[in-house]
From TrEMBL:
Residues 1-47, 505-531 are annotated as: Disordered. GO terms for biological process: hydrogen peroxide catabolic process; response to hydrogen peroxide. Its EC number is 1.11.1.6. SUPFAM superfamilies: Heme-dependent catalase-like. The active site is at H75, N153. This is Catalase. One of its GO terms (cellular component) is cytoplasm. It comes from Deinococcus arcticus.
Length: 531
């Protein structure tokens, strides 16, 4: 085995090659120097002082000083796993090519490697996994046409329908900038002035807001995407992951009992099941709608606060995902993984969903800051297919994105000197016609309360009881103006919903305030809007 500085600098020794010596691997510095003393700094005599030229010590400590990178601004706590996606080749009994030309879906049994990262949203990288929070469900498909990221959540709807509001939403849920504590008053100050959030809030404060673990939860792309076929025709689609392990949620009391013993239970559950060969699986389903505004519906198909009713838009299975391999290194694979809604392959497209477009800027923007300019050169993010670009240099450039036969002098296009060429088109382009006034406006069909009320009524009684209890607990410390606004909004979803929260709040308050709160709620009580 080559040893010493000269060998380490030579091309023949890859950085990862181990150095064997007497059956053990020798510790080296990052410069490849074998380390003969890893126990002592160099000092003047045994009692010090320390000298400054102690290169090995300085390198070791200064790398340690830089071990952390900024964590994700949201979804910081996560767990990941590798696996495979297997296509069915059909959708709703028809060849899938009728709707999309995306290669990964075409053939029954066709396999695509994937990497998945599950997460919770609001708190930091080591926060408890039992908190009431949406869960992230981000999948990177390493397809033959390059990567496709499906960046979803467990819940199928979202709090807001305009990306302008996202930083405010997140600030309201994050800890108070003074006390550094999450605060129901701040959350509901924002939410009580965001009527479109009622549907999401109804899910979040029910047991659906605390999935039992990552294996037994659904996933959803939430936003509306498009599929495009070889003729360039588009349809609107929504994506859903259905767990073959079933769905399990926790009550608040169950979550507290889990947290008392183990605040990493979801990460552990995923890792242990995969390590034991019990591989979790999800079926990928889509809902399809013809492209257009659909004035016959009482919601806009581009509104991510709404579900597409399953009786009109059935869930159609298109493939199955199996997670079968744990990461070898958490930081390299899970922490540095970078998913984004802009990462689509041919045959998959954006819809006009404003949230989707706002998100598409945000992900790669934050990743250039969080991971670095060349984050796509890291093995977890790089496509398996190979990359040949004219992008060069930048911090931490790890290699040149060149292809065999590419003239290394030509890092521009077009060129007749052996540079890279544009690819032929796979099919007709999808060219939707767009015209209108530039405005800052909300969608016409808001219908903020209809589906929230339906959800409230569809819950099982114990889920409804939990929802009321959890909302009352979170709202009880809030300012009366905020409580009143929330009761008013919930009453518009369903009269019983508003009344029960008002009663709960009245009981949670000192006696003199109780009568007033019930009286106020009765004044606001109107019949629920028909959905
Ligand atoms: C992560 C922005 C809405 C799902 C992130 C990150 C940002 C972000 C900046 C951190 C990414 C990173 O550091 O790598 C936004 C914006 C949104 C939005 C601006 C709205 C305008 C949503 C919605 C969903 C979602 C609606 C669910 C469909 C996720 C997931 C992650 C994430 C799953 C974690 C990805 C991972 O595991 O690395 N988001 N987000 N986000 N977001 Fe969003």
């Amino acid at each position: 085995t080559p040893q010493g500085p000269a060998a380490a600098q030579g091309e023949a020794t890859p950085a990862s090659a181990p150095r064997e010596q007497e059956g053990q691997t020798t510790l080296t510095t990052r410069q490849g120097h074998p380390v003969t003393d890893n126990q002592h700094v160099r000092t003047v005599g045994p009692r010090g002082p320390v000298t400054l030229e102690n290169y090995h010590f300085l390198e070791k400590i200064s790398h340690f000083d830089r071990e952390r990178v900024p964590e994700r601004v949201v979804h910081a706590r996560g767990a990941g796993a590798h696996g495979v996606f297997e296509a069915y080749g059909t959708v709703g009994g028809e060849p899938i090519s009728r709707y999309t030309r995306a290669k990964l879906f075409q053939e029954a049994g066709q396999q695509t490697p994937v990497f998945v990262r599950f997460s919770s949203v609001i708190h930091g990288g080591h926060s408890p996994e039992t908190l009431r929070d949406p869960r992230g469900f981000a999948v990177k498909f390493y397809t033959e046409d390059g990567n496709w990221d499906l960046v979803g959540n467990n819940l199928k709807v979202f709090f807001i329908r305009d990306p302008m509001k996202f930083p405010d939403l997140v600030h309201a849920f994050k800890p108070d900038p003074v006390t550094n504590r999450q605060d129901g008053q701040r959350i509901f100050d924002f939410i009580s002035q965001t009527p479109e959030a009622m549907h999401m809030i109804t899910f979040l404060f029910s047991p659906w807001g605390i999935p039992a673990n990552y294996r037994q939860m659904q996933g959803s792309g939430v936003n509306t995407y498009k599929w495009v076929n070889k003729d360039g025709e588009g349809v609107l689609v929504k994506y859903h992951w259905e767990p073959l392990q079933g769905i399990r949620n926790l009550t608040q009391a169950e979550a507290e009992a889990v947290q008392g013993k183990n605040f990493n239970h979801a990460t552990q559950d995923l890792f242990d099941h995969i390590a034991a060969g019990q591989f979790p699986q999800w079926e990928l389903c889509v809902q399809i709608m013809s492209d257009g505004e659909h004035p016959e519906l009482d919601f806009d198909p581009l509104d991510d606060t709404k579900l597409w009713p399953e009786d009109q838009f059935p869930f159609l299975p298109v493939g199955k995902m199996t997670l079968n391999r744990n990461p070898e290194n958490y930081f390299a694979e899970v922490e540095q993984a970078a998913f984004g809604t802009g990462v689509l392959v041919d045959g998959l497209d954006f819809s006009d969903d404003k949230m989707l477009q706002g998100r598409t800027f945000s992900y790669s923007d934050t990743q250039r800051y969080r991971v670095g300019t060349n984050y796509l050169q890291l093995p977890i993010n790089a496509p398996r297919k190979g990359v040949a670009t004219n992008q060069r240099d930048g911090q931490m450039a790890y290699r040149v994105d060149t292809a065999p036969g590419q003239n290394p002098h030509v890092n521009y296009e077009p060129s007749v000197l052996g540079g890279l060429r544009e690819a032929p088109r796979a099919g007709q382009p999808h060219t939707p016609y767009v015209a209108g006034h530039l405005v800052g406006q909300t969608l016409d069909r808001t219908n903020d309360f209809g589906q929230a009320g339906e959800r409230y009524r569809a819950f099982e009684p114990w889920e409804r009881d939990e929802l009321i209890r959890n909302l009352v607990d979170a709202l009880a410390p809030a300012d009366t103006r905020i409580q009143e606004r929330m009761v008013e909004l919930l009453t518009q979803c369903d009269a019983d919903y508003g009344r029960r929260v008002a009663q709960g709040l009245a009981q949670a308050q000192p006696a003199d305030k109780q009568a007033q709160a019930v009286q106020d709620a009765e004044q606001h009580s109107e019949p629920a809007q028909p959905y």
